[in-house]
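COURSE: Structural Biology Practicum
ASSIGNMENT: Worksheet 4, Part C
STUDENT ID: 0417
INSTRUCTIONS: Below are two proteins. For each, the amino acid sequence is given first, followed by its structure token string. Answer the questions at the end about the second protein only.

PROTEIN I
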Amino acid sequence: MGLSSHSLICIYFKYQAFGYKACFPLLASVPPASAYFAVESSSMAYTPSTLKPEEVASLMVQYGVKKHRDRYESIFIKAFMAGAMLSFGGLLSEVLQGGAGGLNGSNPGIVKVLGGFVFPVGLVMIVLQGQELLTSNMMIFPMAVAKRAIPWWSLPVNWIIVFFGNLAGSLFFAAILVHYSGIVSAEPYASFIKTFAIHKAHDPQWHQIFLRGIGCNWLVSVAVWQAAAARDTISKIFAIWIPIWIFVACGFDHVVANMFSVPLGIMFGAPMTVNQYIGKSVIAAFLGNAIGALFVALPAVYFYLSDNHGSRLRDAETGEVLNEGSLSSNGGEKERSTTHIE
């Protein structure tokens, strides 16, 4: 239906006096175009894919407080699971290397690189499941103790519980799921398992295992640090994978990984006693791993947790710790918030 000239004149003057909403009531409920642009711009706000180093350092202290407050039986069970998870990666690595006899004779470097490539699946499962691994706690607890967020005695208590939990999980996996199951009892795997254990814990000198332990846990701590910095799962996997790949391919010594490979070799008949394994491999690798973790922990405390962070972290013992997103920018000023860990 057309509009008369009189109606058009009335609409024009009404528009001039009261705006378009008075002339067209149905349009009053339609939001302006600027609202759509606001929603679009907010959804496109940039979020960094990784946390800043100072945020990761604060997060490590937060992890230390949470682990300190956890129940002892819970810590042991998580450590048991971590020992088994790491053994899955160790078994996969030995299956690959042991089954590549021809390639090992012509190009042993490639076999080492391939064996190292598959091993990180164990640590990936541990990190994504939130289990307790001794070597990562060797970095986390010294940081929390250094900032007085937890008491000093929490460090040895946690390390002892996690050590025996990791050991129990590794021995269970080696004895029940590998040795008694017979999955690698045939050649060439049985011979390789014995040879691998001898090369790990019998042939090297004590100081060599100790030094290899330092290099190992330096890389493991870097992997755990990078995984904590990553925001999504795929990034966490890649952040873990590369450092662990390097340490296994290069032949460094990890005290928990050796809890699977060396006892498994003894079960298969490697010429080595339990006392020799403990005195030479366990103690040397443990001490080396503890020092290797400090190569990441102490510089992080010095660079990122000194001065203004210290006063807040000392209150973490009471349950107040830094929020993961506490360091945010607002008009050029840093904002801080706290949260309670359950």
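PROTEIN II
(use this one for the questions)
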Amino acid sequence: MHTHFGDYIFSCTFEKADVDNHSPVNLNNQNKIRQVSSSPKTKIVVKINYLIFFFPDTSTHSASLSASGGLTCSRACRHCAGERALQERQRQHMARGLPKQKPIAGVKEVIVVASGKGGVGKSTTAVNLALGLMANDQSKSVGLLDADVYGPSVPKLMNLKGNPELTDKNLMRPLVNFGIPCMSMGFLVEEVAPIVWRGLMVMSAIEKLVRQVDWGNLDYLVIDMPPGTGDVQLSITQNIPIAGAVIVSTPQDIALLDARRGAEMFRKVNVPVLGLVQNMSVFQCPKCNHQTHIFGLDGAKELAQTLGVEMLGDIPLHLNIRETSDKGQPVVVSSPDSPEAEAYRRVAAAVVRRLAEHLR
């Protein structure tokens, strides 16, 4: 059947869902459709491409919109068993349409560092997390991928410039500093050149940054994700097996709202949320040592409790972090004995522990 909505035509298939046998049967004419709609033991299932909408017979029980997008019974009844079976078949059908995850050659575990909002120190945290992982265990090899195509920060933070060379297999060689191989869109364009691309071009660029790079053998690949919950996040999480996600936020309420959205997104795509990092948690005056919670007190800790995830650590709002980052000398390597560097190393240790717990 073809249904017209404005300038769009939707091709629909009507099926009779037998509640007792949980098996849909195609209906060939409208007479049968009318017969089905008058029966209290049946439902009409309308399929539009990959979307399935369930229309229960409201003469026998009421219905409400569920989080999965289907109409579900608002009270327990014998119709619910058949509906759950149909929803399970819907979930399996949708899963078949998703791309199969393929590991990155030579990479053991992938850690994504994300935030729902920009400007919370996510890239600085990702860089120092990568350096902290290696500082805590010199036997581990760590790589860093800058997936923020529109606003790459890794070249500046890691003090790297230039274009990647190509191997005999036509793979890009990452640029290396402080023992960390790095790849970023910032290596492929001019430093001040804006990247004005549509979604498909961005997806193609991400695929090249991930798959067409000679990463060698890495124990951890830290991915600095762009802010938000858009195409890049979905593309990476659906195509690459992710060991876990680290959510970065300031204690400020407005940042925590978006951080929660980011955490919920990873849960929806079955990526373990390792925990939250509370960045810019407190400012200590360098003259009198008075502490001021500029962005609020313990907001990320409260969010972690609400989400049921771990608080990985607090990073202070400190001049040393800003100055070393702007110079391309991250605090973990330029001031390894400072309290700020120790804070990042504690976060790195917590991430490794959470990864081990997840593998058990």
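ANSWER KEY EXCERPT:
Q1: Residues 107-359 form a domain with the Rossmann fold fold (CATH 3.40.50.300).
Q2: The longest strand covers residues 273-284.
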